[in-house]
Amino acid sequence: MSRRTLVLSLVTAGCVGDLAAEGSKYYPDGTDSGGGTSTSAPADTGMQGSGDSVQTVTGEVPTTTAGPGEPSSTTSEELPGAGPEIVSFLFEPAVLNEAGSAQPVAVVSADVVELSLEHEGAELWSGPPPLTWSFAATSSAASDGEYTFVLTARDGKGQETTADAKLWVSLPPSGTEKCVFEEDAGSGWLTAVEYGGDALVVAGALAKPSLEATLWRLDPNSCQPQAGYPWAISQWTASPLVVPPSQAVGLAIDELGRMAIAANIGSGLARRSYVAVLSPQGALEWEHVGPVGETYSGIAAAPGRIVVVGEKLVNEMPPQYDGLVESFDLEGTLLWSDVLAAPLPGDDWDDQFNSFDEHPRAVTWHEDGNVLVVVGERHVFENNDKFVRAFSAQYNASGSVLAAWTSSGLDSSDDGLSTATSCGGGIVAGGWVQDGNTARTPATRWLDFMGNGSGKRRLDALKDTSIRGIACDREEKFSAAASNDTNAFALSFRTSDDPFVFKLNLAGTTLTATDCDARGFCVVTGLKGERAWARVHHP
How far is it, in rounded angstroms, from Cα 449 to Cα 231? Predict the structure, then answer.
C-alpha cells in the first residue's frame, strides 16, 4: 500500500472536564491556621482511552496565615492528571473516489504535548502539536486499498492513549475519462495547454467568423469554461498590427500566475510572431509583435522571465529558416534574442551559404540544471545528402549557448523532437523517427545533462504517428499526445522499457498537447472533427 503524507488538524478540547477547573486542582496535606480541613477523592493515575470519563475534584484551596515573625506560605499538592484523551480521530473525507488528498482531524485534550501517527507499524509523523501531514491518493494502481492509521497522544508525564481511523481509497483505472471540453461556438482547434492554480488553461484558434488566437479557462473538475471565456485576441489587444488570421501556438503560466501566450499573426511568409501576458482575469499586461518573417512555436516560463522559440525566415526562394530564441522579463522588456544557426557545438561541418534549416519546436526550463532546453529539428549534411535530425540546445538565463546535441541517425535516417518536459530532475523530449519513405512512428528521448538524447530512448510502433505533447504526472509517469492529422492516441508509460499504462485510440481526433496537474490528472488537447476539444483523464 502506498503511504503518503496528510494534513493533521489538531483541535484542542478546551472543555474536557475543564480538568478540575484551573483553580481547583489542589488538595491540602494539613490544616490551615483557622483549623479548617478539606477532603478530596483520590485521582485515577492510569492511562485514559478515547471516550473515558474525566474525574472532577471539589474542595477549598487551602491557605496559611503567617504567625508573628514567620514568612507567608501556601502548602498544596497538585492533583494527579486524568491522562491525555483523544476525543475524536477521523478522516475527511473518509473515502477517496478520485486522485486527491484526505486530511485526518483529531480532537485531543489540552494536556497533550506530543502526537505520533503510524500505519502498519511504521511511524509516519510525530512531534508536538500542531503539525501538518496529508494522505495523497495518486492512482488506482498505487493507492487503492483500506488504510488503518493509529494516532498516539502523550502528555507531559509520559502517559499515552491511542485511537485509530480508517481511510478507504478506490480510484478509477488509469486513463478513465474525467471530463471532456468541446467548443461549440465555431470551428477551431487547441494547440497548447497548461494547468494553473485554479483553472485548466487552453489556447488555440477559433473562427467566429475570422480565425483568431483564442484562450479558454476551464474548470479543472468539470471542463466547463469559466465566465467570460473563450477570450479572443481581438478582445484583449488594441494593437493595429494584430490582424486576422491569428492562432496561439504556445502557453505558459508565469511565477505571478499570469497567462503567457505565444501566437502567430498573418499568413504565409508574411506572418509575424506575437507574445502577450494576460492577468488571470484576462486583462492584457503587455504584448510584443515581431517583424514579418519571424514566427513562434513554443513558450516557457523561467524565473523572472518568459522565453519563446520559433524561427526566422532567411530566404524566400526557396524558404529557408534559422532558429529563433528570445527572452522577455516579467514587464515585457526584451532581454536578449539569439539566432540559432549552424554550426552548433558538436557540428563537424559549416553552413557557408545558410542553406540548412533549424526549427526549434519547444522550450522548457530545467530547474535542477538552471538552464533553458530547446528541442526541435534541423537539416544536416551527411554522406552527400541532407537529412532531418532531432536536436537540443541548452542556454543559460543570459542567452549563451552552453551545449548542443544533434541526432546521428542511430534509430532511423530522419528524426525530430516536438515537445519537452522536466521530470524527476531530468529532461524528457518527445518526437518521431522515420526511415526513408516509411511512415513516422513515435519516439521519446531522455536527455542527459548535456542534452544528448542518443542514450535512453523509447520507440513505439504506432504507424504514421508522432508525439506532439508530453508531460510528467505526480507519480513521474508520462502522459503523451501522439497523433497524425486524422488519428490520435492518448498514451501513458513509466520509462523506456515498460509497457503502456494505457493506450487510448481517440478516433476522429487530432492531438497537439498535454499537461498534468498537481493531483496527477492529465489532459490531452487538439480538435475533434472541426471543434476545439480536450479530454481530462484519471492518473
Answer: 39
Q: Which regions in the chain score pLDDT beneath 50?
A: 1-79
Amino acid, res. 76: S
Calpha distance 539→536 (Å, rounded): 9
pTM beyond 0.70: yes
CA distance 108 to 95: 23
Q: Are 250 and 299 in contact (CB under 8 A)?
A: yes
HSE value, Cβ hemisphere, 13 Å, CA-based, for 156: 4
pLDDT of residue 384: 80
- How confident is the model at residue 451, as a pLDDT? 94
pLDDT, residue 80, reads 54
* Cα–Cα distance, 268 to 321 (Å, whole number): 14
pLDDT of residue 382: 85
Rounded to 5 degrees, what are φ and ψ at 18?
55, 10
Q: Dmax of the chain from CA atoms?
A: 118
Residues pairing with 430 in the sheet: 419, 444
> What's at 183, amino acid-wise?
E
Give yes or no for a contact between 96 and 85, defined as CB atoms under 8 angstroms apart.
no
The pLDDT assigned to 138 comes to: 97
The per-residue b/e assignment along 76-97, b for 16 or more CB within 10 angstroms, e otherwise, is eeebebbbbbbbebebeeeebe
Q: Which residue has the cell 537539416?
A: 379
